[in-house]
């Protein structure tokens, strides 16, 4: 039905984790090239290793391009006239590489998760402790539920699959309703919250609090599904409950300096709730094990040290730049302005004292045309750009870094709690909600508020999570219960060109931002969701059938 070889996932894709090695933690394993399911699940180490690919390789097709294109391009926090521009223009195409990449990646995650669940139940040796078996199934169901949450918010109704082998022969498999999918998501991640441990069995592994945090996001989103304008209070209460459970457990903390969140040396920091783990392998990283974001987003090869760094015309939208308040420290950590300097990123430039020679210095973002112009026409992307090998203990190659990709940070849990407490009210001065909301703001360098509205929270999420692939899903969440406002938000985002003029060429402290050519794009109900990949529609005509409720066991 889908362009995915599920037989390979049952016994082959699992090996991806064995081929992605790094210096430490659970991805550090010697490569094996001849194992089968029935031979493999015999020890605690093997069972845990079976879920390792769920933290990296199976996400590659999404993380490589689609996370930016769909998550930020459609959401209005990323602009480019040449890269993922169909998403930027809200005209996503069924033949677009990133559309197919996202679809494939999410179903790859589901396929791998199903393989782990089934194989642990069938093949795990009696000597493997029950808590380890449950741990593996908890991780698998967490990632399966998360993948379905992305699918349903990106494409709308999709088929729910619990057993990969059935669809090899079952031609009746069809799409399931949005309500069914969200129930499936909640059940999966709630299961994970019950069986995962309070502390990670290995660094960067999921815990019960990671699952509870993700449950808070899922309940907040589901609260609007089919609600006809007013979000369901029961789901809002559940979102607040799970967010508060994580907060009370003191399992995570805000990192004091926002910019430090995106340094490779801080992978697995105390704010990380859940993250994808990418690896460096001495220049021989297996394709799909690395984080490629820097290659596409860095504005020059002088930053990366290799032939990549293709992000010269990528940047923030004008709408995004207008969202930042004066003094917000998160802007510099997310987008580069002319006059910004980054002491922890080295760049290679021409040596003014030695014609024809190069020199290295801390990164200084200059104005356009090598400084000939007084402005810069892009607020280039900074987030997930980590610099050259010498800036990262040597662990950078062409199209490869090992900076983790956040799936959820503690800051989001605090904002979820505030929004869930606000609920359907116009505003709130609830002390606990304000404390959570303001903790995020104050860390960002902007003043605390004495009361908050939905619009306050929406804007706060926008600046806090920009270029982390979440902007579109905030719009999708809104669209469930207030489609008119969601479409209005999108249509009012200026995605045109601009100029940024610094007050000084180096270490600027203020900037003038001028709109050059405003550009607005519209989307309607018929085009709100990303279209199914054309190749999948040709292979799976059932995708055209009316969605049906899922029959839960």
TrEMBL record:
Keywords assigned by UniProt, alphabetized: Cell outer membrane, Membrane, Signal
Keyword Aminoacyl-tRNA synthetase: no
Gene3D superfamilies from the UniProt entry: 1.25.40.390
Domain SusD-like N-terminal: 81-220
Gene Ontology cellular component terms for the protein in this record: cell outer membrane
Domain RagB/SusD: 270-547
Compartment list: Cell outer membrane
Main location: membrane
Similarity-based family: Belongs to the SusD family.
Protein name as it appears in the record: RagB/SusD family nutrient uptake outer membrane protein
UniProt organism field: Adhaeribacter rhizoryzae
Lineage, highest ranks first: Bacteria, Pseudomonadati, Bacteroidota, Cytophagia, Cytophagales
């Amino acid at each position: 039905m889908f362009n995915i070889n599920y037989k390979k996932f049952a016994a082959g894709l699992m090996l991806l984790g064995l081929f992605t090695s790094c210096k430490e933690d659970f991805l550090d394993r010697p490569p094996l090239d001849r194992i089968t399911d029935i031979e493999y699940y015999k020890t605690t180490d093997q069972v845990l290793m079976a879920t390792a690919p769920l933290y990296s390789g199976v996400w590659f097709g999404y993380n490589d391009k689609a996370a930016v294109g769909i998550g930020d391009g459609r959401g209005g926090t990323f602009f480019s006239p040449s890269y993922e521009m169909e998403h930027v223009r809200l005209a996503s195409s069924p033949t677009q590489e990133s559309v197919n990449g996202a679809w494939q990646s999410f179903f790859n995650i589901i396929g791998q998760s199903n393989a782990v669940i089934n194989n642990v139940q069938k093949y795990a040796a009696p000597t493997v402790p029950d808590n380890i078996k449950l741990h593996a199934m908890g991780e698998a169901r967490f990632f399966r539920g998360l993948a379905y949450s992305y699918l349903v918010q990106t494409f709308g109704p999709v088929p729910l699959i619990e057993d990969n082998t059935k669809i090899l022969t079952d031609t009746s498999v069809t799409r399931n309703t949005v309500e069914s999918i969200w129930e499936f998501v909640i059940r999966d991640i709630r299961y994970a919250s019950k069986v995962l441990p309070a502390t990670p069995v290995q660094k960067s592994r999921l815990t019960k609090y990671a699952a509870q945090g993700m449950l808070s996001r899922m309940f907040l989103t589901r609260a609007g599904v089919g609600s006809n304008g007013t979000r369901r209070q029961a789901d809002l209460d559940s979102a607040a409950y799970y967010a508060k459970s994580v907060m009370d457990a003191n399992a995570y903390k805000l990192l004091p300096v926002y910019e430090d969140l995106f340094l490779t040396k801080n992978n697995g920091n105390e704010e990380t709730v859940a993250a994808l783990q990418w690896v460096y392998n001495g220049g021989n990283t297996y394709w799909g094990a690395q984080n490629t974001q820097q290659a596409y987003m860095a504005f020059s090869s002088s930053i990366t040290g290799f032939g990549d760094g293709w992000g010269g015309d990528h940047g923030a939208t004008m709408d995004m730049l207008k969202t930042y308040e004066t003094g917000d420290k998160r802007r510099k950590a997310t987008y580069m302005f002319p006059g910004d300097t980054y002491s922890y990123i080295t760049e290679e430039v021409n040596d003014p004292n030695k014609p024809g020679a190069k020199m290295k210095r801390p990164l200084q973002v200059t104005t356009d045309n090598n400084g000939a112009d007084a402005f810069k026409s892009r607020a280039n992307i900074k987030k997930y750009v980590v610099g050259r090998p010498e800036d990262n203990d040597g662990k950078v190659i062409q199209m490869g870094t090992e900076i983790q990709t956040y799936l959820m940070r503690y800051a989001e849990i605090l904002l979820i709690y505030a929004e869930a407490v606000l609920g359907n009210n116009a505003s709130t001065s609830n002390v606990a909600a304000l404390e959570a909301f303001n903790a995020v703001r104050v860390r960002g360098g902007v003043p605390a508020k004495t009361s908050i509205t939905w619009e306050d929270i929406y804007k706060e999420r926008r600046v806090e999570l920009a270029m982390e692939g979440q902007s579109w899903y905030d719009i999708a969440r809104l669209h469930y219960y207030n489609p008119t406002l969601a479409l209005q938000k999108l249509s009012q985002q200026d995605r045109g060109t601009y100029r940024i003029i610094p007050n000084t060429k180096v270490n600027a402290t203020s900037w003038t931002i001028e709109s050059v050519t405003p550009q607005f794009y519209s989307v309607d109900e018929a085009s709100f969701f990303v279209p199914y990949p054309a190749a999948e529609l040709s292979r799976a005509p059932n995708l055209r059938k009316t969605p049906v409720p899922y029959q839960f066991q």
